[in-house]
Amino acid sequence: MTDLAAFIAATPLADTHEHLHTEEKFLADGPDVLQDLFDHYTQADLRVAGASAEALKRLTDRNDPDLAGRFLGVRAAWEAIQHTGYGEAVRLTAKRVYGMDELAVEALPAAQKIADSLCKPGERLRLLRYIANLSYVQIDDFRWECEPSDDNFFQYDISVVGLVQGNVPEGCATPEVIREHIGSSFAQWAPKAVAIKSQHAYNRTLHWQERTDSEIRPLLGKSEELTEADKRALGDWMFARCIEEAIRHELPIKIHTGYYAGHSYMPIERVPSGLLAGLLRRYPEARFVLMHTSYPYGHEQIALAKHFPNVFLDLCWAWSIDPYATRDFVRHVIHAVPANKLFAFGGDSFWPNASVSYAFQARAWLTRALQAEVSEGLLTEKQALTLAARWMGGNQAACFNLS
Q1: Contact between residue 342 and residue 390 where contact means Cβ atoms under 8 Å apart
Q2: Is the link from the previous residue into 296 a cis peptide, with omega within 30 of 0?
Q3: Residues 98 and 241 in one domain
Q4: Do residues 168 and 181 touch, judged by C-beta distance below 8 A?
Q5: Does 9 reside within a domain?
């Protein structure tokens, strides 16, 4: 093992994006072994590879004791997807958590005993802090309410996605009342948050344009159902108000860009991060964290980070979507973008062992990216170590004011 590989393996890794279930849910509804292995993004690959919806539903049904039957229903699809980024993460969990060199029916009963042993108080934290070796996790649990843990290991984003989708808060009938509602909500929760977050690209285009109070006022009193254009106008206006509050409270703005989770529905024309250029220009004092490499529009996102001082790039989820593309993205960033702009990891998962496997995956592919730079003489090992330290935690601490 090189010094670079040893450093990346041993250094605590900042985790800037998760959707982790609470400790209470983990203890009450914690996953059995097949849920632990497959109850995340891998299901989309399995479906695309030919697994039926019924087989996938059964696969993650912890109330069905027939582990063999549940797995056999998707085994052909599993064999087709085991080398994708999602499949690699499954194999990492199988190996590092359950001791399985390969997924085999006969190994499942013993693995289930291990899964049973994990569902106990404190295990969720142990897996994340000591097995994944994370320095902290930042969680988007789709709410405004933020209650960080006492030691600040579990940190929280304010979810503003509903507003950006154009969903007007109940009882807010005028622009003035909405502005007051947003301001008071930020006053309550911003001191406990690390960022605001929106994944509105799942419901509308990333393109943003400035809207005035007079433009949205008649929409608030509209008796008939709002059109898509109406909701987009409202969402643009409310997003701007949220960004102004984020600036006031010194919170970065996290935005989902690019690829959709799931399968069979992705209006790809509305996900490139370049659609955000007008927003980035309008609010130069804001800090925008663009997530997921805007896959498959990585070069476009690199160009934004190169051009705009207020843009940062988060590799969360990207390593598992397409690890080769993300490795190449990192190498392009080295030679195009200032070194203080990149964040190395976020698991984007609900169960802790998924975060564990995605963290191992990220470390391995980050090592490959930087080791290739060293091997080709483009970086010295000392320079590669400096970049790794920045990307694994230093840049995040500065951007999110964690010091």
Answers
A1: yes
A2: yes
A3: no
A4: no
A5: no
Q: Is the pTM of this model over 0.90?
A: yes
State how far the alpha carbon of 308 is from the alpha carbons of 200, 226, 297, in Å.
22, 35, 17
Within 139-192, residue ranges assigned H as helices are 161-164, 175-189
Structure tokens at 380: 């010295």
At which residue do the structure tokens 């030691």 appear? 151
pLDDT (tens digit, 9 = 90+) per residue, 249-286? Answer: 999 999 999 999 999 999 999 999 999 999 999 999 99
| CATH label of the domain that carries residue 207 | 3.20.20.140
Same domain, 313 and 327: yes
Give the closest residue to 318 by CA, choosing from 344, 345, 292: 292
Position of tokens 């959709």? 260
pLDDT given for residue 56 in this prediction? 96
Domain that holds residue 91: 31-118
Amino acid at 344: A
Q: Which two tokens stand for residue 374?
A: 């060293």
pLDDT tens, residue by residue, 162-180: 999 999 999 899 999 999 9
